[in-house]
């Protein structure tokens, strides 16, 4: 992926197509997210060689196969540790982590919180379909309380995780939510997230047309509204206001909830201030003495 040199001025969304046919169900919300990401890369004028997409396991973790950039497929719930490692090795790269709600808010929850408090410069797109789609329809961490699924035949007993409020209080410096049914709006959120210097969360309402028959396109179209279009203009610098918006459930706001300027983790690492680790000369380094101390 990303093997040939690309020209910034010539790139179009379709230039990021690998030619592989997505295996998602017809109508899956992942198609809208895929379109938004390709459009965002083209609008930003990014070279393919400067982008790395890190994915994990699940329906929504196949993006690196369908977007012509560098990519790495990690194991379930470990997207962010891999992304952080790549970022510290070469902080000049644009790191886009993409996974599902089960991957990020379930098994990967610990990594999610720690990556945000470190404020490492990564854009994390979570395809939130409120169900485990790949394993055919079990309740996920964001499933609504009372939802009947294969794993909760008498209704889900658990309150859902609120990723937006969690991100705000955990240290993320760009917190946004989009909807797979509004590609243009989602594209703008992704662009802003990539441009932001710090940890960026873009949580995406992503309908699962096969296993989640409650949170459908029609359901979201009736529920969502854009923060920037609201008559009471939302202040993205106000954490209390952002948390209040994050807790709304009768209507569901999409857009930028919170944004803050803050020094990033990698900006404080002395070893990479002059140049990336990947470009540093280590030919004269001998580790035999150090290794002998442990033998």
The tally of strands reads 8
Corresponding CATH architecture: 3-Layer(aba) Sandwich
Q: For the report, how would you describe the main beta sheet?
A: 8 strands, mixed
N to C succession of SSEs: HEHEHEHHEHEHEHEHEH
Low-confidence stretches: none
Order of strands across the widest beta sheet? 2-1-3-4-6-5-8-7
Question: Structural class of the helix and strand makeup?
Answer: alpha/beta
Alpha-carbon distance between the termini? Answer: 41 Å
Rg from alpha-carbon coordinates = 20 Å
Specify the overall morphology.
Answer: globular
**According to CATH, what is the class?**
Alpha Beta
| The named CATH superfamily | Thiamin diphosphate (ThDP)-binding fold, Pyr/PP domains
DSSP helix count?
10
User: What name does the CATH topology carry?
Assistant: Rossmann fold
- Give the proportion of residues in helices: 25-40%
**Overall mean pLDDT score?**
93
Number of domains: 1
Textual characterization of the structure:
This protein is of the alpha/beta class. It has one domain: Rossmann fold (3-Layer(aba) Sandwich). It is 30% helix and 15% strand. The protein contains 10 helices and 8 strands. It has helices at 30-44, 63-66, 79-89, 101-107, 109-118, 163-170, 183-195, 217-223, 239-246, 288-292, and strands at 51-55, 70-73, 94-100, 123-128, 174-179, 200-205, 224-226, 252-259. An 8-stranded mixed beta sheet has the order 2-1-3-4-6-5-8-7, with helices on both faces. α1 (30-44) packs across α7 and α6 runs antiparallel to α9 (239-246). The chain is globular and about 60 Å long. It starts with 29 loop residues before the first helix and ends with a helix.
């Amino acid at each position: 992926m990303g093997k040939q040199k690309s020209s910034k001025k010539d790139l179009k969304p379709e230039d990021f197509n690998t030619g592989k046919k997505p295996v998602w169900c017809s109508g899956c919300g992942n198609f809208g997210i895929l379109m938004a990401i390709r459009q965002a890369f083209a609008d930003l004028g990014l070279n393919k060689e400067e982008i790395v997409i890190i994915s994990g396991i699940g329906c929504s973790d196949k993006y690196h196969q369908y977007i012509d950039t560098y990519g790495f497929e990690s194991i379930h719930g470990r997207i962010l540790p891999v992304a952080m490692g790549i970022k510290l090795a070469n902080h000049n790269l644009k790191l886009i982590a993409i996974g599902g709600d089960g991957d990020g808010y379930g098994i990967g929850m610990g990594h999610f919180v720690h990556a945000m408090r470190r404020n490492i410069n990564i854009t994390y797109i979570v395809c939130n379909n409120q169900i485990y789609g790949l394993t055919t329809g079990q309740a996920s961490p964001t499933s609504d309380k009372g939802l009947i699924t294969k794993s909760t035949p008498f209704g889900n007993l658990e309150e859902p995780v609120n990723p937006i409020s969690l991100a705000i209080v955990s240290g993320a410096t760009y917190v946004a939510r989009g909807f797979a049914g509004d590609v243009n709006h989602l594209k703008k959120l992704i662009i802003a997230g990539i441009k932001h210097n710090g940890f960026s969360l873009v949580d995406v309402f992503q309908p699962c047309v096969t296993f989640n028959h409650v949170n459908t396109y029609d359901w979201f179209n009736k529920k969502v509204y854009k923060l920037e279009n609201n008559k009471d203009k939302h202040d993205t610098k106000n954490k209390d206001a952002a948390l209040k918006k994050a807790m709304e459930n009768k209507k569901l706001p999409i857009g930028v909830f919170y944004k803050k300027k803050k020094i990033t983790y990698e900006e404080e690492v002395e070893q990479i201030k002059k140049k990336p680790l990947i470009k540093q000369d280590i030919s004269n380094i001998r580790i035999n003495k150090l290794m002998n101390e442990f033998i």
